[in-house]
Amino acid sequence: MRATRALIHLNNLKSNIRGIRGFLQPGTKLCVAMKADAYGHGAARCAQAALEAGADFLSVATVEEGIELRNAGIHSPILLLSLCSPDETDSAVRYGISPFVFDSEYIGRFAESCRKIGTADFCVHLAVDTGMGRIGCRPEEAGKIARLIAGTGVLSLGGTATHFALSDSISQEAESYTRMQFERFQTAIAAIRAEGLSPGICHCSNSAAVLNNPEYQLDMVRPGIIAYGYYADEVSREYLEAKGCQIELKPVMTLESTVCSIRKCLKGQSISYGCTWTAGQDTYIGVIPAGYADGVFRRFASSGLSVAVNGKSCPVRGKICMDQMMIDLGPDCTAKRWDTAVIFGDSRSGALQTADDIARMTGTIPYEITCGISKRVPRVFITG
To answer: Which of the residues are catalytic?
Structure first.
């Protein structure tokens, strides 16, 4: 196996999901996001672990992601959160992947696929745009669209959904905006019921709202990043503890590699492309076979990334290359060739930082860090 690998701690995933369950009201269903290969963690194995931990639904962004789960033996309901192309609707129907629909053209395509394949009562969810500005009908159109779904004779309205735009912010303005979205969603639900139709499973809460807004849970919640061990932006551990809410989230991914070479670097010698770093003293440089093609991006070095080798902090020196990066093992180097180098992960794995720490260093979010770990990095699933 390649030296650079992502360790996926499935017990941490299960622990996080059970912790989320503790925030839910009795009877509220749990839909865990598996899109983007489970945020880079490996969708098939993570899906199975999530279901074992109590998830009721799973969600994906593409039909292909849903098919991957079906081919892995996953039989739970799967929601398709993003739109698919016309030539994918047949596959969505065949594999029982429930799309978000909201206009006549899209609904018509799924109805046509159902008739062609011979499927009746195919479950769809009605998406309502309450303020995200991405997909969905206007709240006042929800009743009409629900009636259109029912009128196909082959589609059934299994649920009604919206998505919050600002729930991960704790400002008064953000909280007011989220409340406005929820109220608009309630208007949409009422419009569907006014048509004499059931809205099905109503759901709107993402990771931040799950932890910060229990009043918005409705019939189901859709957590993403918190399942993988990271708090949702400003809805942080410290913020929740101050509110008297406690949930211990454990990072599921640990990215590690090895020191594949150690070389003495003399004072005045430069390292890597552009010679952007020059040794101020004699030291030892270790080479790590991981680079930006693996998801360890160049900007990490300029933001002060260090790697843990035998518990010691070893800063990255020079520019990160496509396949390798160099770290400073210090003038009193005790590291040996093939020692483990931990780039990020749970502190219990020896990491100096989490994906969230790197995200804050580089002005992004932990989602981008874990999703950025490329396919050529093998995922090693740890069950113990």
So the answer is: 35, 273
